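Worked Example 4.2. Read the sequence first, then its structure tokens.
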Amino acid sequence: MGDFSELSKPYRERVQYASVTERGFAWAVDIVLVFLTAAVAELIVRIFITVPPSILFLAVFIGYHVILEAKWGRTIGKLLLGIKVVTTGGESISTYSAVVRNVTKVVGAFSLVLILVGVILIADSRYDQRLGDRWGNTIVVYG
């Protein structure tokens, strides 16, 4: 008979978490894609109305992350690195969780100090969660 003791553990104790390095590389890929998308969007939008580039970038940044994570659990960067976002129970995340984790990502990106705080929170977390993951009840895992 097989040992089922592993299956009796909660999901978050049975998975391998994505490292800060993988998460960082995925973020770097995503930020390049967001910049390119925002630049194209600005060219198209400016035909009709004038929108400050920073507002457009923010909308593209949040939209990109929320839509892809809520729909598929991963952005293109996460897909390339083989990682995904799931709930602490292992299910697909909700749109609400995607919004929570990505709005906190925007706030955290405003300064190097806040980025370092995010890295420290991941390192200090039992489940490698940054603040947005904790509030959104999500984890980033391989898969």
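Now turn to a second chain, presented in exactly the same format:
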Amino acid sequence: MSKWIIASLAATIFGFTMDHIVSDRKLFGGTTPKTLSKEWQDETERMKNAWPRVAGSPVVLNPLTRQNFIVKSRDS
């Protein structure tokens, strides 16, 4: 049993290491896309906040997905 646990931990560590080397360190060359810049992130956030919120009765904005959910009272 312990050999399976050790093997899975080793494989996970190896996978994360290879992902970091290939993706972050750009092992095969390439550049980071411009959509990962701070300016792009700020502009996207500004556009999301400017989006009109249209709904019927009172809504709660889910900050994680930016979706509107209709608030229902406990009576109904």
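Notes for the reader: The chain has a mean pLDDT of 79. The chain has one domain: 2-38+48-70.
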